[in-house]
Amino acid sequence: MSDFxxxxxxxxxxxxxxxxxxxxxxxxxGRPLLLRTxxxxxxxxxxxxxxxxxxxxxxxxxxxxxxxxxxxxxVIIVAGGRAERWESVRNAIAAVPQECxxxxxxxxxxxxxxxxxxxxxxxxxRVASAVVPGDPIRSTLKRVTTExxxxxxxxxxxxxxxxxxxRESVRGRRVEATIDRTRLMAIQTPQIFSAxxxxxxxxxxxxxxxxxxxxxxxxxxxxxxxxxxDPRNMKVTTPTDLSIIRAILGHRVQEQRPxxxxx
Length: 263
Known about the structure:
Layout: E1 6-11, E2 27-28, E3 31-32, H1 33-42, E4 47-54, H2 59-72, E5 76-79, H3 85-93, E6 102-105, H4 115-125, E7 130-136, E8 141-144, E9 149-151, H5 155-162, E10 170-172, E11 175-179, E12 185-187, E13 191-194, H6 195-202, H7 213-219, E14 225-228, H8 239-249
Parallel strand pairs: 1-4, 1-6, 4-5, 7-14
Antiparallel strand pairs: 2-3, 6-13, 7-12, 7-13, 8-11, 9-10
């Protein structure tokens, strides 16, 4: 498809609650994590525009921090959502140029996307209207109770040995069922759609419980193709994830690099 043009939407309006701060500004080989994610797409000729959805309540601060670097790559910054990810994507879709044939949505905190995976997705998107990367579930999955329970040592033995200290307990949840992981996939981003299809998906009345963009496409009854993902394409959610992605990408923290290669 010679007129294949992709607009990339990067929702970046989250608060980083589980991370405990601004994870997108964390150092990743001398540049902020957000910029590392954006740079993946700047090297692709299929990408016509990149749109970053910023926190609406602090968009001026966001522009002050990242605007110059993003502007160097021609990135458009728009106000994202105040509560949900889908709000950010919906706002960004409104800024997608009409000449773009496809829209890709990629998590801002996935800087581990590599060229091989991106090529695989783009090749698939040339023939399928909705394409997402998926990584097979390898761990055993168990459904647990909502409530937690105290798991205490045998009281008689504990009292005899430890006294009141023996009554200390560990809290946990009880297993309700073990889930069959056959054909289960952990879905990643970027997810690529024909522009017409994603606009139609986001025009639906109720978007409130959407956990990813493909879910809205599925509601239309449209097929979604899952292609092979990559476990290195992980999402940074916690400080431990950040350490792992640094190791995967071979980036040392600022203090471990020569002074001339730091921020």
